[in-house]
Write a structure and sequence with these properties.
Radius of gyration: 21 Å
Number of helices: 15
Strand order of the largest sheet: 1-3-2-6-8-7-12-13-11-9-10
Strand content: 5-15%
Number of domains: 1
CATH class: Alpha Beta
Helix content: 25-40%
Shape: globular
CATH topology: Amidase signature (AS) enzymes
Structural class: alpha/beta
Number of strands: 13
CATH architecture: Alpha-Beta Complex
Order of helices and strands: HHHEHEHEEEHEHEEHEHEHHHEHHEEH
Largest sheet: 11 strands, mixed
Length: 471
């Protein structure tokens, strides 16, 4: 039998098969992960709280499976949660000293869904304070470190989720995505992250940042695992006023089908501007891989993207301040300086600017629908830069706001938070310093399955080693 450590780097589908066929107990897996977390997380800082009932949940799962009550592909699988997602009787801090003793009285809807599926909630994962930052290094509990280089940032705000999945401290995790906060750390840490169509996954019980832009999404090491999680998370939730009513579907149904004659658009504008040279090389190689797989590549127009990006920023600033105004007044000294300073910039915006920005959401939908009219998906880099060092803040010596790393981090991800279109990132290469590089697939609303189909073909062709066992 393989050493237990090797099983910790396997995929959800692989380890689920071992559990279902009783070749490995859930208790062994959870014990092994807890030991690994205890040994390694002092270097990574991914977890804020370990679930004290994880082993008890594992024993219960083994008992159920032993009695033939197998619940499905997540039964017995340890999953981590961004510490923005409410968990009954388990601390939920938002990465903030304001909430360091906050213990919710009920689970978020997504946690209820995971528990119903038999998943093991292994713990709560570190986050940029209040999820307001794409760097992942501003938390009350300290910065999360990238498993590929401990001096580099993970990206944020779902920093702990990205690093924990990459470092094989859990098999999958949930993050939130308002400007790219699932996709940025997924790209920087070399894993798969999905921002689904707006309203598909419930936000009930998830601390808000921007109710217009917030999404909840899965983070995993493989495409197939990501689809497995999406299958569990989908469900219309009346408790979420932004919930989208759509039929449940099997998000994995197209995985394994070829992409011969699948049409993929390459944006002529915006997405390929000012790319890091290694990112550009990796992206061009990805295009070649897609062509070799039979995809038909076509250039498409995406117009007025700068205007749409500005609209996303205005909405985010305004709604983030509205969300946090009371805590800013009640706890003025319990904020990270950078997060507080960013929140206060909302006071420069005027009401009509926010109203105009909201109207541009429909324009953003039209721009992307026009680009997708004759193609099945768009392909772009996920990030324009490589992972910077922790606390690095500027792209040049000018140190102006325009050169701040936060804008480079969110540039290629934020547009689909504005229009709500599904966006999937997966690793496509590594830099000369062995740092991950991601590629992003964007689809029409409610066409996540098509993105998984394309992503899986690319994943199989690239065959990258994404689980980072040695830290």
């Amino acid at each position: 039998m393989e050493p237990l450590e090797n099983f910790l780097s396997k995929s959800i589908s692989e380890i689920g098969n071992e559990i279902r066929n009783k070749r490995l107990s859930v208790f062994e897996i959870v014990s092994g992960l807890l030991d690994r977390i205890n040994r390694l997380d002092k270097h990574l800082n991914t977890f804020i709280t370990i679930n004290p009932e994880a082993l008890e949940m594992a024993e219960k799962a083994d008992e159920e499976i032993g009695l033939g009550k197998y619940r499905g592909p997540l039964h017995g699988i340890p999953i981590g949660l961004k510490d923005l997602i409410d968990t009954k009787s388990i601390k939920t801090t938002m990465g903030s000293g304001i909430y360091k003793n906050n213990i919710p009285s009920e689970d978020a809807t997504v946690v209820e869904q995971l528990k119903k599926s038999g998943a093991i909630i292994i713990g709560k994962l570190n986050t940029h304070q209040m999820a307001y930052g794409p760097t992942g290094d501003r938390s009350y509990y300290g910065p999360v470190r990238n498993p590929h280089d401990l001096s580099k940032m993970t990206g944020g705000s779902s920093s702990g989720s990205g690093a924990a999945v990459a470092a094989c401290l859990c098999y999958g995790a949930l993050g939130t995505d308002t400007s790219g906060s699932v996709r940025i750390p997924a790209s920087f840490c070399g894993i798969v992250g999905m921002k689904p169509t707006y309203g598909t996954v419930s936000k009930h019980g998830v601390y808000p940042l921007s109710w217009t832009l917030d999404h909840v999404g899965p983070m995993t090491r493989t495409i197939k695992d990501n689809a497995i999680l999406m299958n569990i998370l989908q469900e219309y939730d009346r408790k979420d006023c932004d919930a989208l009513s759509r039929k449940n579907e099997d998000y994995s149904r197209l995985i394994g089908k070829n992409i011969n004659k699948v049409r993929i658009g390459i944006p002529k504008q915006f997405y390929l501007d000012k790319l890091n040279e290694e990112v550009k090389v990796a992206f061009n190689k990805t295009i070649s891989h897609l062509k070799e797989s039979g995809a038909e590549m076509k250039e498409v127009n995406l117009l007025n993207m700068e205007k749409l990006s500005d609209a996303q920023k205005i909405i985010l600033r305004s709604e983030a301040y509205a969300t946090h105004e009371k805590n800013l007044n009640d706890f003025p000294d319990l904020w990270d300086d950078e997060v507080k300073e960013r929140l206060m910039t909302a006071l420069q915006d005027r009401g009509f600017e926010y109203a105009n920005a909201l109207r541009l959401r429909d324009s953003a939908k039209k721009v992307f629908n026009d680009a997708l009219e004759n193609v099945d998906a768009l392909v772009t880099p996920t990030m324009s830069i490589l992972p910077p060092k922790i606390n690095e803040r500027y792209l040049s010596h000018n140190k102006t706001d325009d050169d701040h790393i936060r804008w480079a981090n969110i540039k290629l991800t934020a547009p689909t938070n504005l229009n709500g279109f599904p966006s999937l990132t997966l690793p496509c290469s590594f830099s000369s310093e062995d740092m991950p590089i991601g590629v992003q697939l964007i689809g029409r609303e409610m066409e996540e399955a098509k993105l998984y189909q394309i992503g899986y073909v690319l994943e199989q062709q690239l065959s990258l080693d994404v689980g980072k066992l040695s830290i």
